[in-house]
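Researcher: I'd like a candidate sequence for this fold, 503 residues long. If you have to choose between options at a position, lean toward the conservative one.
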């Protein structure tokens, strides 16, 4: 049985490539292309509906074509006392099948243009009597023409028989979606000889048949063929467009990895003037500034360490060597006169030299590099305490609470504070026991060093070379607090608290 937790992992691996920026840009380009095409199709559909169906463009054009091409052809057949119905019927059948003859070799199929075989046509004389009709069941030739479907003489036909020539008054739309049109047959003086009557069925936009025909003839081919082609082309061009962007971003990512490992010599060449090019140049400038800042910090840290070492040598070794020199001078002066006193002076000088040797040993040990790389601060402190305890013959106990990892700067600072605190204990405290604790909190870590030595006067120790000022400066440089509590004869407690996330 498959464990439920394996499903999200499989799905995540399956979709991982598509979460990359290149595929996101490619898919977005594809979606934009397809969406744009669909919007264009809808706009075209709306335009077709408005200009062909919703507006008066089509019926007005039909009226104007009937006035220009049909009426002049019918006039010679009506301009007589007894119009020839058979000739009119023949012309009407030719008009209905071939179309309007606009030139000797060109005919416009107006019935197809106007809506198909559902159209009706008729010719009436000036009195409104039927002379010819298609279909021929619309009335009796010679009788007053009354369209069977309308039941009355429509307004356009009545207007045409009065000689009206304005196209706007020669057509109308019926409630059942028919266009009814009529044009007068006039001579040059404007005398009315009859009229040409024409109807065409045009479904309204709300009709289901209209939607069905539009979807079948226009939308479906677009959705199945044109949209698929647009999606393929959009994906191709989207991939090519995204490829250049992702290459530039990958170059930035490689440079950032190098900067994260301390190699600030890496840079990204970009002559582009767009936002990514500007970002690239700003990051290159930032890397140079960080490199200069690190070099300045290293030089400053080295200078501070030299100053501290100089102070420690001056306060301890130099003074002890000077005292040993003075003692040996006194022994030399007493050598002939009082050999026993001279021997005592030599013993004192030997003790001073041994003390100087011990101080130098402490200083040399502090100058060794901090080996925190690859191990935790706790392990480094344990090793430091064990070695220090053996060298100084002082018992040490180490307590830890809530161990976790902090930044390298925080751990190095605490390790240096520990070194200097233990060095002070070994040099000055005359302690037998030392207790150390490292307490990790949610936002800070606290190091305490307590001994049972002789203690000292904190106010009197200000400005003296006991390393307290160095420890304070290290802690406060990271935004932490440093406190020293000491009572003569009762020991000393040093507390250093440093935030885990320093600025």
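Model: Candidate sequence:
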């Amino acid at each position: 049985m498959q464990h439920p937790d394996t499903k999200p992992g499989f799905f995540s691996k399956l979709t991982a490539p598509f979460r990359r920026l290149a595929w996101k840009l490619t898919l977005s380009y594809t979606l934009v292309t397809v969406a744009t095409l669909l919007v264009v199709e809808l706009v075209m559909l709306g335009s077709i509906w408005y200009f062909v169906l919703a507006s008066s463009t089509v019926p007005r054009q039909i009226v104007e074509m009937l006035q220009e091409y049909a009426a002049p052809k019918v006039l010679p057949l009506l301009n007589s006392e007894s119009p020839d119905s058979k000739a009119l019927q023949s012309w009407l059948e030719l008009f209905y099948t071939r179309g309007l003859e606009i030139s000797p070799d060109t005919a416009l199929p107006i019935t197809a243009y106007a809506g198909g075989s559902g159209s009706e046509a008729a010719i009436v004389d000036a009195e409104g009597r039927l002379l010819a009709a298609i279909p021929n069941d619309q009335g009796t030739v010679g009788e007053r023409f009354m369209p069977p479907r309308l039941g009355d003489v429509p307004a356009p036909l009545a207007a045409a028989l009065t000689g009206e020539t304005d196209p706007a008054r020669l057509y109308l739309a019926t409630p059942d979606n028919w266009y009814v049109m009529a044009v007068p047959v006039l001579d040059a003086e404007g005398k009315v000889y009859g009229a040409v009557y024409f109807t065409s069925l045009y479904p309204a936009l709300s009709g289901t048949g209209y939607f069905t025909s539009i979807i079948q003839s226009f939308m479906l081919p677009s959705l199945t063929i044109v949209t698929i082609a647009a999606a393929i082309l959009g994906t191709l061009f989207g991939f090519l467009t995204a490829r250049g962007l992702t290459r530039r971003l990958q170059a930035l990512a490689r440079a950032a990895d190098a900067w994260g490992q301390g190699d600030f010599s890496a840079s990204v060449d970009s002559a582009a003037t767009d936002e990514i090019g500007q970002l690239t140049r700003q990051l290159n400038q930032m890397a140079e500034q960080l490199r200069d800042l690190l070099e300045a910090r290293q030089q400053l840290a080295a200078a501070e360490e030299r100053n501290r070492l100089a102070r420690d040598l001056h306060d301890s070794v130099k003074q002890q060597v000077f005292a040993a020199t003075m003692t040996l001078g006194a022994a030399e002066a007493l050598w002939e006169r009082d050999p026993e006193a001279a021997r005592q002076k030599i013993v004192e000088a030997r003790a001073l030299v041994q003390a100087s040797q011990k101080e130098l040993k402490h200083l040399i040990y502090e100058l060794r590099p901090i080996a925190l790389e690859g191990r935790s601060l706790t392990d480094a402190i344990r090793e430091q305490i064990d070695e220090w305890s053996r060298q100084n013959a002082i018992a040490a106990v180490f307590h830890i609470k809530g161990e976790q990892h902090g930044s390298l700067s925080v751990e190095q600072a605490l390790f240096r504070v520990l070194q200097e605190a233990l060095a002070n204990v070994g040099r000055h405290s005359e302690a037998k026991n030392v207790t150390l604790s490292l307490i990790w909190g949610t936002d800070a870590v606290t190091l305490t060093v307590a001994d049972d030595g002789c203690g000292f006067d904190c106010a009197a120790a200000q400005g003296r070379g006991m390393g307290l000022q160095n420890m304070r400066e290290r802690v406060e440089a990271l935004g932490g607090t440093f406190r020293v509590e000491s009572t003569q004869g009762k020991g000393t407690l040093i507390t250093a608290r440093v935030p885990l996330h320093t600025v």
